[in-house]
Amino acid sequence: MPSSLSLKSKRVRIAAVTAALAAGAGLYTAGAASADRAVPRTDKEIPNLTQVQDKIKAFYGDTVDASGQHYASADSNYAKQVADIEKKAKAHLEKVVKNQVKGKKGAKPAIVVDLDDTTLLTYNYELQQGFHFTPESQDAYLKSTDMAAVFGMPQLVNWAQSKGIEVFYVTGRGEHQREWSARNLKNVGYKPVADTAHFFLKNKQTPPAYLACGAKCTTVEYKSGTRKYIESKGFDIVANFGDQYSDLQGGYADRTYKMPNPMYYLP
Questions:
Q1: Is residue 20 situated within a structural domain?
Q2: Which residues belong to the signal peptide in this entry (predicted)?
Q3: Using an 8 Å Cβ cutoff, are 267 and 223 in contact?
Q4: 145: Cβ–Cβ under 8 A, 6 or more apart, which residues?
Q5: d(CA 155, CA 136)
Q6: d(CA 101, CA 244)
């Protein structure tokens, strides 16, 4: 991680420190929506950066392959937490399917899933970059490398589609990353097609007309506005999955599911 952590960065890395320690101490509650930006009075109020990185690695069950690449482990505490969230989500979706089978009429059920650290795991990329995101390094990585799937998410998403639930991908990635991202989703086992009708990315050059904020949308405005648009097409978003609270705020979803991510914070 770099020595200079600017709040102007697209990813507020200092929040990884706060979130990681608070999660371990049970202080980062489900209702927390933003990082603590209070100015420390002394160095004792600042978690040690190296120790935080070590905690993050332990949480993901850091595994190193023969080439020195870092990957998360399927038996890690991270994977276990994800599995618990997925179990609760599937129970909800099973009820949705049952109600549809009974003949309840209305909008067609749909789910919305984010990409980074919701469907695709950025852990290997983050370790390569030392937890220091840049648009250039992300582009280079996505162009040449497939991120691993978040444990269990392809199975959940594919099951939902098989039961008649429409699947929409909504990400903060840029429009120029569409082809790489769609390839990645397909290659790691996601069956719902990431076509233009089901895959939404940020387009700052030519933003869609349904977003009143245009190219200046905040994450919450962009994500909620896109969900509103999806529902205007005759869908009921019965579940919305994201690793950031900004993925989930703003309405237009019956249920929200916060995926774990202590690596970075996006307002």
A1: no
A2: 1-35
A3: no
A4: 124, 125
A5: 31
A6: 33
- Split into its structural domains, the chain has a count of 1
Q: Which helix (H) or strand (E) holds 57?
A: helix 49-60
CATH of the domain at 152: 3.40.50.1000
* C-beta contacts of 123-127 below 8 A and 24+ residues apart: 123/60, 123/70, 123/71, 123/72, 123/148, 123/263, 124/69, 124/70, 124/71, 124/148, 126/263, 126/264, 127/62, 127/69, 127/70
Residue 41 pLDDT exceeds 50: yes
Res 100: pLDDT: 80
Predicted pLDDT of residue 26: 40
Q: Report pLDDT for 85.
A: 98
pTM, rounded to two decimals: 0.87
Q: What is the pLDDT of residues 195-249, one digit of tens each?
A: 999 999 999 999 999 999 999 999 999 999 999 999 999 999 999 999 999 999 9
Domain that holds residue 144: 80-258
The strand pairing partners of 109, in sequence order, are: 236
| Burial (0-12, 13-18, 19+ Cβ within 10 Å), 242 | buried
Phi-psi map region of 61: left, alpha, beta (phi>0 left; psi -120 to 50 alpha): left
Q: How far apart are CA 59 and CA 242, in angstroms?
A: 19
144-160 per-position pLDDT tens digit: 999 999 999 999 999 99
Q: Which two tokens stand for residue 182?
A: 């769609």
93: in domain: yes
